[in-house]
Design goal:
- The protein is an alpha+beta fold.
- Helices cover 27% and strands 30% of the residues.
- It contains nine helices and 17 strands.
- Strands 1, 2, 3, 8, 9, 10, 11, 12, 13, 14, 15, 16 and 17 form a 13-stranded antiparallel beta sheet that branches. A two-stranded antiparallel ribbon has the order 4-5.
- Strand 15 and strand 16 form a beta hairpin.
- Helix 3 runs antiparallel to helix 5.
């Protein structure tokens, strides 16, 4: 049952960029959004296999929905110059002559630590003069930058080759990812435990969900598998569902949750995950929006962070009989790390800070037509089956009671006849008196 999927983006517009760059002031940001796009997915190169699995690729297309947005794609937003931070991070591991050459080029180009672009440019890409210069020195760099630009996340993108189980041979394996890009393990983290590919894509799970189980989810955006746990019963337009949420344990520091030690690349503190290992070295760090469930110091370092459970947690509302996700909200925030770097004059006054860039909510909710179809195709047949089942049980019970009653009455009748017969044998004859 298809559920309409939307991508909502919120940007952190920096209000005191000059003060941050020139005196290391505490950042002040204002949240702008949402800017809403409808996401369309299409599976192609579909191949069915004899082991009860299917292989496919999936393209994504995003269409802007103005009526669901707080502004236009042409709105200007001032944010951290992420290409500059990315280049700076890359140069840490290069020879001094290259550092000097790039640094001089940035001075000539008059690169600033903070830049302004439109929402559309920030998301889907723009030609960056600095990257054009750097790409001539370092061919691995693209001259274009966008937070969702590229072959794995942008419009008409594909995020890899999936092989998933259909549940044909084992219903507990419905939609479980078997391999991604031909591998059962990811190549990013420090151990097989953290590199395991577990769970589905988060839109469907195996039927007969239990409240005690963990619902596993494989996310290519996070480059890892995560899990959700049962929180409470909810309803959607009369349909009873179970809400599963992402617990704090997912991003807890390894000192709190040792299972996360193999995600430390390096460890950054509770609430953060370093993604540079799977983002071609870009200093991308993910968290929950507004650093929800993270170290309180992260919130205190930025003026404008206001974490709220209802707005910033990840939730999946599942129909337990079928395992279908009827409502979902997968939320994550993109951050980067800023610090003084000796060979870049633009960073001279910076204080080490985990700096928020934007956050995204990938959400979906079954519409009235989908719910009506679910009720007619699933709920009503199940209800009829239950009615028939209970009716048959009731009829069976009545027949059993009737049969037992008949046997008991028959048994009593036989006993009465036996007693009467015995009495007539024992009665004295009249001639004996």
């Amino acid at each position: 049952m298809p559920v309409p999927i939307y991508m909502q983006f919120w940007f952190f517009d920096v209000k005191n960029s000059d003060e941050i760059a020139n005196s290391g002031a505490k950042p002040i940001v204002k949240q702008l959004g949402p800017y809403t796009y409808q996401e369309f997915r299409e599976k192609y190169n579909i191949t069915w296999h004899g082991n009860g699995s299917i292989t496919y690729q999936q393209s994504k297309k995003y269409i802007f929905r103005p009526h669901m947005s707080a502004g236009r794609e042409s709105d200007n937003v001032t944010m951290l110059n992420i290409p500059l931070v990315t280049v700076a991070n890359f140069l840490k591991f290069t020879p001094s002559w290259l550092k000097m050459l790039v640094s001089l080029g940035l001075v000539v180009l008059d690169e600033s630590l903070f830049v302004q672009h439109t929402v559309k440019e920030w998301l889907w890409g723009y030609e960056d003069p600095m990257l054009q210069y750097v790409s001539k020195l370092i061919p691995s760099f693209d001259s274009k930058f966008g937070l969702f630009y590229g072959p794995t996340s942008g419009n008409l993108s594909s995020d890899g080759v999936y092989n998933i189980f259909t549940g044909e041979l084992d219903s507990s394996q419905v939609a479980v990812v078997n391999t991604w890009n031909g591998d059962k393990f990811l190549p990013y983290w420090k151990s097989d435990y953290c590199n395991m590919i577990n769970g589905s894509d988060g839109t469907i799970y195996s039927p007969f969900v239990e409240k005690t189980q963990k619902l596993m989810l494989f996310s290519t955006d996070l480059c890892r598998s995560i899990f959700t746990t049962y929180e409470k019963d909810v309803s959607l337009k009369g349909l009873k569902l179970w809400r599963f949420t992402a617990p704090p344990a997912i991003f807890e520091n390894a000192t709190v949750n040792p299972d996360n030690e193999c995600f430390c690349m390096p460890c950054l503190g509770s609430g953060l995950l370093n993604m540079s290992v799977c983002k071609t070295g870009a200093p991308i760090i993910v968290s929950a929006p507004h650093f929800y469930m993270g170290d309180p110091k992260l919130v205190e370092a930025i003026d404008g962070m206001h974490p709220v459970k209802e707005d910033h947690e990840t939730t999946i509302d599942v129909e337990p009989l079928t395992g279908l996700a009827m409502k979902l909200a997968r939320r994550m925030q993109i951050n980067t790390y800023i610090e003084p770097i000796s060979y870049l004059a633009q960073t001279a006054y910076l204080k080490p800070t985990f700096f928020p860039v934007m956050w995204v909510n990938e959400s979906g909710e079954a519409d009235d037509a989908s719910l009506a179809k679910f009720k007619s195709d699933v709920q009503i047949p199940v209800l009829i089956t239950k009615i028939v089942q209970y009716t048959l049980l009731a009829v069976g019970a009545m027949l059993l009671i009737t049969a037992l009653t008949f046997l008991i009455i028959r048994q009593f009748s036989k006993k009465a006849e036996a007693d009467e017969s015995m009495g007539s044998l024992l009665a004295p004859a009249s001639g004996d008196q």
